[in-house]
Amino acid sequence: MFDARTDVERLLRAAVPAWSAPGFSATSTINRSVFDDPYRQGFGVLDGLVYRAGGTSVIVTNRELLVRWLGDVEKRDHRVSLSPSIAEAFQQDDIWSSALAIDSGAEIQYIMPATASSGTDIVTVALADFTQDIEYDKPPTDILAAVVRGDRVFIADETLKLVLPPAKLCDARVKYEQTQGWSAPIPPSEKGLRWDQAVRDYRACYARLLHDSAAFDAVRKQAQALVDRLR
Fold first, then answer.
1. In this structure, how many other beta carbons lie within 10 angstroms of the beta carbon of residue 64?
2. Which residues contact 155 (CB under 8 A, 6 or more apart)?
3. What pLDDT sits at residue 83?
4. If you write DSSP's letter for every residue of the chain in order, what string do you get?
5. Is it the case that residue 64 has pLDDT exceeding 50?
6. Domains in the chain: boundaries
7. Kindly report the CA angle at 11 between 8 and 14, in degrees rounded to 5?
8. Nearest 5 degrees, angle CA 76-CA 80-CA 86?
9. Which residues contact residue 83 at a Cβ distance below 8 angstroms, ignoring those fewer than 6 apart?
10. Hey, which of 7-16, 73-82, 118-127 has the most confident mean pLDDT?
11. In this predicted model, what pLDDT tens digit does every residue of 98-121 receive, in sequence order?
């Protein structure tokens, strides 16, 4: 009897060569595909092979599958809006939540500098947290890394080794919008815009403080080590 899921896995493994790196599992699982129930978590995620090592997971796919997925993801979920540009899309929250098949939303708080190895076309590294609620002051908990080298695409999520504190010096405007801003006699749409800007300002302030903190060098080294494994 024909098994659609088995056939998709066979085609996917033919399209995406196996990958190996020290510490990672020798075998991979497949990221759940369009054959999943559309009412369940994981429907429509990016097709690829998933490798794990402790607190790190890596999706390995190819450029064609990624480009097609970027073109289709908004059709499956009207709440998601992604740039068709690969480089720009990896700096947006939605790509991580949509690709990784998780039950919470990614919130990028800081784009990290990273050095790309020879032959790398795109590298993006971000510090982020995952949440189901609006938690503007939750510090980053994960390093997210995307590396595109020719036809190969790597999308990684690694737990931060350091526990970073929230930035209390940055939250005055957000607290104001939480308390007095919502009672202001202005249209709800404008209140929403003010809140969004306050959160962006908080994150920009947090990024400046993190960059100047004693923890930054350790975080940068962990991020660079992750990128160096994605080849």
1. 11
2. 46, 48, 58, 59, 61, 96, 99, 100, 144, 145, 146
3. 87
4. ---HHHHHHHHHHHHS-----TTS-SS-EEPP-TTS-TTSTTTTPPP-EEEEETTEEEEEEEHHHHHHHHHHHHHH-TT----SSHHHHTTSHHHHHHHHT-SSEEEEEEEEP-PPPTT-SEEEEEEEEEESS--TTPPP-EEEEEEEETTEEEEEEEE-SS-PPP-GGG-HHHHHHHHTGGGSSS-HHHHHHHHHHHHHHHHHHHHHHHHTSTTHHHHHHHHHHHHHH--
5. yes
6. 4-164+215-229, 168-210
7. 150
8. 100
9. 70, 89, 92
10. 118-127
11. 887 566 788 888 899 899 888 899
**Count of residues in the chain:** 231
